[in-house]
Write a structure and sequence with these properties.
Blueprint lengths: L1 H27 L6 E5 L3 H7 L4 H22 L3 E8 L7 H20 L1 H5 L2 E6 L7 H14 L5 E9 L1 H17 L10 H6 L11 E4 L18 E4 L9 H12 L8
Parallel strand pairs: 1-2, 1-5, 2-4, 3-4, 5-6
Helix pairs in contact: 1-9, 2-3, 3-4, 4-6
């Protein structure tokens, strides 16, 4: 029996690898989304089902994000925006929030020194209300953004202390201030003007928005920007998200006809 199981496993792995290679070839021959946005959901549930502490789930999620960044680079997707921490997430336990903030601070400083970031000219930008963040995290954000501000080959946006409605309010306040100062006429306000005052003014709107964990909602993420984005939902928890799942999401996008309301 052990030998039969081993043979079965080898056959299964061989078939899986062959399918993955075939799918990769098909996907890479078609048009890629320029901007991929991801709602990384399911770290805590993944940890519970694996019998791990919540913090371990977040560590696994961080490692998965590093893999996905590599996949995007391999696929030629030049803009990646991820939803890492919402304004509502501050209501979680003090220990969990503290752990996440420590991880953010450490990761941003590491990104600022990462030779891959500088070799590939990746601009790193944080989206959100950073005044809600601890000083250490804000300093780390300033560090990585300062070191990558002039890069324009790839864009990596991380939404932290972020809410889509809050972002729209922020943009409208900036526009209102310009009207009040006489720098802008009310009649000149249009979609383009609003977009220019959003956190994502440096990149085009996402082509594909992907959410893991089986939840079918957008949870206050990029509300303005995803007006015409394609949406893709998968049941897999974020730490368990595989390369083949990434390819399937992109293929689904490629098989759709984008009409933009026409």
């Amino acid at each position: 029996m052990p030998l039969q199981k081993e043979i079965s496993k080898i056959v299964s792995n061989t078939a899986y690898n062959a399918y993955e290679a075939k799918l990769e070839k098909e996907v890479f021959e078609d048009e890629m989304p320029k901007h991929l946005a991801i709602i990384m959901d399911g770290n805590r549930r993944f940890a519970r089902e694996m019998g791990m502490e919540t913090g371990s789930g977040h560590v696994q999620g961080k490692q998965k994000l590093e893999e996905v960044i590599e996949w995007c680079h391999k696929a030629g997707i030049r803009i990646l925006t991820v939803y890492a921490f919402s304004t509502e997430n501050f209501s979680r336990s003090e220990d969990e929030v503290e752990l996440l903030m420590e991880m953010f601070e450490e990761n941003f400083r590491a990104l600022g020194d990462d030779e891959r970031v500088h070799k590939n000219h990746i601009r790193v930008k944080v989206l959100g209300d950073r005044e809600l963040l601890p000083d250490g995290v804000k300093e780390a954000i300033d560090y990585v953004e300062g070191r990558t501000r002039e890069y324009d080959q790839y864009y990596y946006n991380i939404a932290i202390a972020y809410g889509g409605r809050q972002e729209i309010v922020y943009a409208l306040k900036q526009v209102a201030a310009k009207v009040k100062a006489g720098e802008l006429e009310v009649d000149d306000i249009d979609e383009k003007v609003i977009s220019q005052h959003m956190y994502t003014s440096h990149v085009p709107d996402p082509d594909l928005v992907l959410r893991t964990s089986g939840e079918v909602r957008i949870s206050n993420f990029l509300l303005w920007q995803m007006a015409y984005s394609e949406l893709y939902f998968t049941d897999i928890y974020w730490p368990g998200f595989r390369y083949i799942d990434f390819l399937r999401a992109v293929r689904s996008y490629q098989q759709r006809r984008r009409r933009y309301g026409k």
